[in-house]
Amino acid sequence: MPSGPAVWSGMAADHPGGYDPAALERLVCFEDFHQAAREVLTESAYDYYRSGALREWTLAENERAWQRWCFVRRSLVDVSAIDTSTTVVGQPVDFPVLIAPTAFHRLATPDGEVATARAAASLGTVMVNSTLSTVALEEVAATGAPRWFQLYVFTDRGLTRELVERAVAAGFTALVPTVDAPTIGIRYADQRNRFVLPDGMELANVAESLGASGGSGSGLRAFSAQFDQTLTWKDLEWLSGLTSLPLIPKGVITAADARRAVDAGARGVVVSNHGGRQLDGDPATADALGAVVDAVGGDIDVLVDGGIRSGTDVVKAVAMGATAVLVGRAVLWALAAGGQAGVERMLGLLRDEVADTLRQLGVPRVGDLTPDVVRPVGH
Description:
By secondary structure, this protein is α/β, with parallel strands linked by helices.
C-alpha cells in the first residue's frame, strides 16, 4: 500500500494529540462517537472508514434492517440478576460483542491496533485483528488480549502460510479467512480522495513481503489485486492443513455457503457483507442471518456484523440465532474520539445497553434468548 502526504495519523492537523476525559464522558451512543470522530479525522481517513461500495445501498440497508424487527416483551419475570456472558467458538466473553477486523487503526490513534486490543482485554471480549493492520500482529499479541486473526489469502501462498504461522506462534486462537473479497470493492469516496496511507504508516504484517503498490484512484484497490481470486471452498481444507486453529470464514451470506463452510470443517461463520463495502446490492446481514442459522442447524456458531449500532441490535441478533455480533465502525469512531479509553467507553456503554435490554425484555440471561422474543415490525 503506497504512502502519501498527510498528517501522521488520520487526525486533523489541529487535533490536540490528547483526549479530554470530560468530553469523552459526554459521548453516550454510536452517533455521538461518530460525530466526535468526524470532527478530528482528515477527510480522507473519515471517508475511508465511513464509506461503502458504489451508491452505498447495502451500507444503509445494513442499519435499516435491524429496525425492521421489534421485541415481544415478557412481563413479571425476575430480572434482578442479569448475565450477559456467553462463549463464542470456545472463547468465553463477558458479553456477546466482539471487535470486527478493520484496517488502519493508526489513522484514528497513534497506538493503532494496540489501543484496540487493550480495550478489548479490559472489557472481556475478543479482538479480531486484520491482516491490513498498521501494527504488527506480534505487537497486538503482546497486549495479552483475547485475539483471533483475520486472513486475506494472497496469490503468494508462501506469504499466506507465513501469516498463519506467525498468528499461531503469537497465540492467536482462531483464524478468520475473509471469503467475500476477491478484490477490494469500488468505493467512490476513496477514488475521489485518491486514498493512500500517510507517510510513515504501512501495512505492518505484509509490508516487507509485498512492498508498495501503485495505481490511480484508491491505492488500496490496486494493492488488493494481490488477493487470490482463484480461492474456493476447497482452499479452506488447505488452510486447515496449516493449523489446528478453528476456522471461521467471514463473508457468508447464503444458506448454501453456510453448509459448504460446515462441510469444509469450519467451526463458525460470520454472516457479513463486509460492512457494505464490497458488493452494493448484497442483502442486509439482518435479513440473511435467519437462513444461515437454519442451514447450519446448530452444528457451528454463527456470528454476524453490519449495521450494529446499539445493545438492542445485539440482543435482536442473538435472539435470531447468532452466538454473538462483531462491531467495526463503532470501534473506529471511538478510537478517533478517545483512543483506548474511547473504545473502552464505547464497549462499556454497549455492554450496559445489552444488559438493560435483557432486563426490560424480561430475559435474565443471554443464553435464554429465543426467536420468539423478536418479530418483524407489523406482524
